[in-house]
Structure formats: structure tokens, C-alpha cells
Amino acid sequence: MKIITQISVFDYSEIEILGDLERCKLLIDNVPDEKIVNNLTQIRGKGRNDYPIVPVWNSILIMPLIECYTVEQLRRELSRNRDLRKICGFNDADYYYGKCKLVPPPKAYSNMFNNLKEIEPKLKECFNELRDFMYAYLKDFGKEVGEDGKIFSSKAKYPSKAEKTDARSETDADFTFKDNYYKDADGKTKVKRTKWV
After folding, report:
1. What are phi and psi of 66, to 5 degrees?
2. pLDDT confidence of 1, banded at 50, 70, 90?
3. Largest interatomic CA distance in the chain
4. What is the distance between the alpha carbons of residues 23 and 114, in angstroms, rounded to a whole number?
5. How far is 42 from 37, CA to CA, in rounded Å?
6. What is the pLDDT of residue 119?
7. Residue 72: what pLDDT?
């Protein structure tokens, strides 16, 4: 793997030519996540540490970058790619096939996502810090923004009102509205609002 020196974060054409591993390293090295990691460490306390917090967090952080949309896709990619495990911080010498696997089990990721829900304000702080950095150093950052309005129907069941719900039901979004803009026969812009539940 070649070493990239003096790469500019602001010229995305330089980043586009990098390989996936180099982009993952660039992301992991530049996200200000110290508070997040410290909070996750406090939540874990003196519990089991088969899979340390930093490598698991780093692997979650790069999921969109390596186009993994589920934990199983991420685990599959980590299990086949030794260099990706190394970039995330997993040390293959610490694990062996048998008692501990090279890749954390799904339960480790479920626990991590539950812990991340507890410290959601810290995640927002991290995002806001990155956004403020971009506003400060990129001219016209955020002046023109496009947004995709595609609706994805959830296949999850509605949460039960009678009993405590688990993570398999849709507990976050109860409903949303989608506005479709069109022009009528007179050329006037009109809005058709659709409610999705």
C-alpha cells in the first residue's frame, strides 16, 4: 500500500482516485470521535473485552464507505479482507479460529448499536464539529444543497402498544409526508401531499 502525503481534504478529485482502503484510513484518522470512544468505554465498564471498542466503532464508521448496508455484509467484508481488519484496528494475532473469531459476532454489533443510542448527543456533536469545520474552510459550503425524496417502505411491524417492543419493530418513524410539486394547466405550481405510515 502506498503512503499518501499532503492530501487535501477539500479537493475530492484527489480522494476519488484513492482505493477503498486508503479512503477508509483517511476517514478513521480524521473523524473527531474521542468523546464517543470515551463514552462507549465508560458504558462497557469492566465487562468482557473480546472485541475492543475502537476496532468495532471504526468498522461501523466505514460501513457507508465500503457500501455495506447491513452488519452481515460488514462482517463478510471484514472476514475476507485482512487489510480492512488491520485498518479498523483488529489484530489478527489476538484471535484464532475456535474460541474467538477474527470478526466480531452479530451480538457485539447489536450491543454497540444499543450503546450508540445512549450517547446520541455525542454523535450529533461529532457531526456538528465536522460540519462547522467545513463551513469555516470551504467557500460556499452548504449554499446549494440537493436532497433525494425517495420513500422507502419499511417491512418492519408496527410496535405493540400492549407490550414492550424489541428492535425488530419500527420504533422511530411513525409517519412522514412527501410533497410532490407539479404545474397545472395554467402553469401554476401546485403541491400534492401524501402521507406515508
Report:
1. -100, 15
2. very low
3. 72
4. 27
5. 9
6. 92
7. 92
Residue pLDDT, tens place only, 39-50: 999 988 877 777
| Each residue's pLDDT tens digit, 82-126 | 899 999 998 877 665 545 578 888 999 999 999 999 999 999 999
Cβ proximity of 101 and 95 under 8 Å: yes
Per-residue model confidence as pLDDT tens digits over 78-89: 988 989 999 999
DSSP string, the chain: -PPP-S--SS-HHHHHTS-HHHHHHHHHHHS--HHHHHHHHHHHTTS--SS-HHHHHHHHHTTTTTT--SHHHHHHHHHH-HHHHHHHT--GGG--SSSS-SS--HHHHHHHHHHHHHTHHHHHHHHHHHHHHHHHHSTTTTSS-----------SPPPPSSS---TTS--S-S-EEEEEEEE-TTS-EEEEEEEE-
Tell me the C-alpha distance between 130 and 142, whole Å: 13
Q: Which of 137, 37, 158 is nearest to 89 (CA)?
A: 37
